[in-house]
Amino acid sequence: MHESTYFTEMVRIAFMSQENLSHINDKGEARVVDLSGEKGQIVGESTFNETIQSSPAVAGNALFIRSDKHLWKVAEKP
Questions:
Q1: Which residues lie closer than 8 Å to 37 by C-beta, 6 or more apart?
Q2: What's residue 5's pLDDT?
Q3: Is 6 exposed, middle or buried (0-12, 13-18, 19+ CB in 10 A)?
Q4: Residue 36's Cα: distance from chain center in Å?
Q5: Mean pLDDT per 10-residue run, the chain (78 residues)?
Q6: What are 52's strand-pairing partners?
Q7: What is the pLDDT, as a whole number, of residue 42?
Q8: Residue-wise over 54-77: b if at least 16 C-beta within 10 A, else e?
């Protein structure tokens, strides 16, 4: 079990992929935490600066996130 101090706000969305835990809180703050070690380590952070209150959708190699104002597509550059 991993102990975490990263979740200081209400986590609205959490999902796992391989050894990473990704989460977005209701303020639109997103983090990717690598869980492969003994302690989780933040390996990515981003802020949407909008309210997020929905679940993400996966299509192909992209993640779609709906905020109160926009629909965001998160994917690697081709």
A1: none
A2: 46
A3: middle
A4: 17
A5: 47 68 86 88 92 84 89 87
A6: 67
A7: 93
A8: eebeeeeeebebebeeeebeeeee
Supply the DSSP symbol for 27: T
Q: What count of other Cβ atoms lies within 10 Å of the Cβ of residue 42?
A: 11
* Side-chain-side CA neighbours of residue 22 (13 Å): 14
Specify the residue for token string 């977005």.
24
User: Would you state the pLDDT for residue 13?
Assistant: 57
How many whole angstroms separate alpha carbon 23 and alpha carbon 55?
10
This prediction's pTM: 0.67
The pLDDT value given to residue 2: 44
- Residue 58's contacts (CB-CB under 8 Å, 6 or more residues apart) are 64
- Taking the C-alpha atoms of residue 15 and residue 52, their distance in angstroms, rounded to an integer, is 15
